[in-house]
Design goal:
This protein is an alpha/beta fold. About 30% of the residues lie in helices and about 25% in strands. Strands 1, 2, 3, 4, 5, 6 and 7 form a 7-stranded mixed beta sheet that branches. The chain is built from 6 helices and 7 strands, in the order E-H-E-H-E-E-H-E-E-H-E-H-H. The mean pLDDT is about 95.
């Protein structure tokens, strides 16, 4: 049995390593991640994780693990910003406000798929123009839902969370361990 991580995210690899897990292969799928018209953020992120896990080629005995994270306010999904202008707009929208982050995971072995979604609440402090400019200059916003990463320099902007810190980073550990174990992966094996 091999574990295939369907993600190019170094954060997801780091989080798996916390569990002592190193994927046997990394195979990020290419799918369209555009939200459907009127799609609720939870439905969106769950659908994307499901489509990702279905798109990864594997042998019947392999386990494929995929996840997707989105940031949202109300029903507005703040995906990965296309450029620094959009990243700045996201930061200005989030500044001084609470928002939500959902990470959905999908784990598949053969035809069996286990899905989980974990929602957390995050408060971002009010940001000054100088803080926004300095953060944008780090390029840490690139490829990050909502235009920031809590585990990077933007962590200094987050005084409060309610929920799962690893889920905000991109992979909820408790739910991941549970899903992998349910599919027969030896999460707690001793070497």
């Amino acid at each position: 049995m091999r574990l295939i991580l369907g993600s190019a995210s170094p954060r997801r690899r780091e989080l798996l390593a916390v569990l002592g897990i190193s994927p046997d292969d990394i195979a990020p799928p290419e799918i369209d991640e555009t939200p459907q018209k009127g799609e609720h953020p939870r439905a969106y992120v769950t659908r994307i994780a499901r489509e990702k896990v279905a798109a990864v080629s594997s042998a019947p005995e392999d386990i494929v693990l995929c996840a997707d994270t989105t940031v949202f306010m109300g029903r507005r999904i703040l995906g990965k910003p296309a450029d620094a202008v959009e990243a700045e707009a996201f930061l200005r929208l989030l500044s001084g406000c609470r928002h939500r982050v959902i990470t959905a995971l999908a784990a598949r072995k053969g035809a069996r798929v286990i899905e989980r979604a974990v929602e957390s609440r995050v408060k971002m402090k009010s940001l000054s123009d100088a803080e926004i400019a300095a953060y944008l200059a780090t390029d840490d916003w690139r490829g990050k839902a909502g235009g920031y990463a809590i585990q990077g320099p933007a962590g200094a902007f987050i005084p409060w969370i309610s929920g799962s810190y690893p889920a905000i980073m991109g992979l909820p550990l408790a739910e991941t361990a549970s899903a992998l174990a349910a599919l027969g992966y030896p999460v707690w094996r001793q070497e």
